[in-house]
Amino acid sequence: MLLDEDPATLIHHTIGNFNITPDKLAVARINESLSTLQQARDLQVREAESSLKKLARTLQTLSNHHAETISTHSSTAHASEIATLDTQKFRIAKSASDLEIESERLSSQLADLQARLQELELQGVEGGDNAKRGLVDDEISLKLKVYRGLGIDLERDENGEYGKAVVRNGRKGDVHVVNVESKFSRFFYANYFWGTL
């Protein structure tokens, strides 16, 4: 009887039947990608803030120049210079406003990514309770989602086996079609896919 066996033996055999190493590696890669993306967003926010400060300094310089112009020119020249400076001021203010909006958008994206990262960290290495979260139904679905996220689409053959992979590299604009055959190891295909991404 199944229940007559030692529970420790049953648990050991059950753990042995699950191959979670690729999933752990996939989650680690996702965490690394999120960290890289967060650093990129932080850099963009800092650049936007730097541009905003530069524009503020430019505005201050123009304001000082405007004050000097008022004191040295006639009323006609003064009115013309005021109009020019007002136009420049509005352009700078619009640029500053655009940069502020972009900074807020990047901050919002950063907050979303941080929330997503926290959610992934709370799920842990094994992905949390997938039934409650509705993320994936089983191990194969999770792997397919990770592959698609990397730009790899797997196609089934007539027997229902995954025998073909389409690898897309958006940065290079390349598409590779790979026939997955049993004569090559998984290690070979993993290295090939990473080389094409």
Automatic annotation (TrEMBL):
Annotated Gene Ontology cellular component terms: microtubule organizing center; Ndc80 complex; nucleus
Subcellular location: Cytoplasm, Cytoskeleton, Microtubule organizing center; Nucleus; Chromosome, Centromere, Kinetochore
GO BP field: cell division; chromosome segregation
Pfam families: Spc24
Listed CDD domains: RWD_Spc24
SUPFAM superfamilies for this protein: Kinetochore globular domain
Superkingdom of the organism of origin: Eukaryota
Keywords: Cell cycle, Cell division, Centromere, Chromosome, Coiled coil, Kinetochore, Mitosis, Nucleus
Chain coiled-coil ranges: 96-123
Molecular-function GO term, any one: microtubule binding
Primary location class: cytoplasm
InterPro entries the UniProt entry points to: Ndc80_Spc24, Spc24_Fungi_globular_sf
Subunit and interaction comment: Component of the NDC80 complex.
Function: Acts as a component of the essential kinetochore-associated NDC80 complex, which is required for chromosome segregation and spindle checkpoint activity.
Entry's family note: Belongs to the SPC24 family.
Name assigned to this protein: Kinetochore protein Spc24
Source species: Hyphodiscus hymeniophilus
